[in-house]
Amino acid sequence: MSGTGTILEAMLHAGIDVALVASDRRCRGLEIAEHAGIPALLVDRVDYGGFSKSFDRDGYSEALTKVLQSNNIDLIAMAGFGTITSGIFHDAFPGRVLNTHPSLLPDFKGWHAVKMALDAGAKESGCTVHIATEKLDDGPILAQARVPVLSNDDESSLHERIKEVERDLYPSVVGRVMASLSNGIEPSELREEKQ
Ligand code: GRF
Q1: Pocket test for ligand 1, best of 100, 104, 141, 168 (most atoms within 8 A of CB)
Q2: Which atom of ligand 1 is the closest one to the Cα of 78?
Q3: Whether the CB of 175 sits within 6 Å of ligand 1
Q4: Buried b vs exposed e over 21-51: b needs ≥16 C-beta within 10 Å?
Q5: Predicted local confidence at residue 193, as pLDDT
């Protein structure tokens, strides 16, 4: 994670067994994890070129992979993770990296999804929980929920209403994925849930 960590809080409230929290920068999510007694690890982008053009994406992805592997992590739920990880990472956890995104994918990919929906005059937006791949905000969809765009919405009000929905939807999907994995069913075998 990289953001304010409200989705992590929702996971913890929902009773999701979070073994480790990893972040690409100092952020509130690490503090939430520490407070909850969960190992909180900073794999800092700054050590791999930060946000410059020389950012070593493969080096960063390898470091993140090693940290998670050495902690025996077998399911990853990204929540506002602000670094696109390369194939190295996804190959190490095939089909086991989940993501939530504040739009109805495949519409409006990327970090500014909420603003893009507003700028496009969308009448509704929402959130998508999907299996993450090397491609940005791509991969099989596990669940989507719709949120109306109100006439007086700005980016922050719309994003907050979407996050309210994400805080319900994402923990419920992660719970379903964990239950399925314990029965030997991979996330890619699950059917999409429409809400
Ligand atoms: C969520 O909207 C997520 O979809 C997006 O970043 C936000 C993270 O929210 N990628 P928070 O930092 O957990 O509050």
Answers
A1: 100
A2: 10
A3: no
A4: bbbbbebebbebbeeeebebebbebeebeee
A5: 73
For 99-145, the pLDDT digits (tens) are 999 999 999 999 999 999 999 999 999 999 999 999 999 999 999 99
Tens-place pLDDT, residues 14-36? 999 999 999 999 999 999 999 99
Look at residue 163 and tell me whether its pLDDT is greater than 90. yes
Cβ of residue 126 lying under 6 Å from some atom of ligand 1: no
Question: Which residue has 């994670």 as its token pair?
Answer: 1
What residue ranges define each of the domains in the chain, with the CATH number in brackets? Answer: 1-81 (3.40.50.170), 94-195 (3.40.50.170)
**Annotated catalytic sites, by residue?**
101
Q: Taking the complete model, does pTM exceed 0.70, yes or no?
A: yes
Which three-class secondary structure state does DSSP give residue 27? coil
The answer to whether the CB of 79 is under 6 A from ligand 1 is yes
Reading across the β-sheet that carries 97-101, which strands appear in turn?
A: 76-78, 97-101, 124-131, 141-148, 193-194
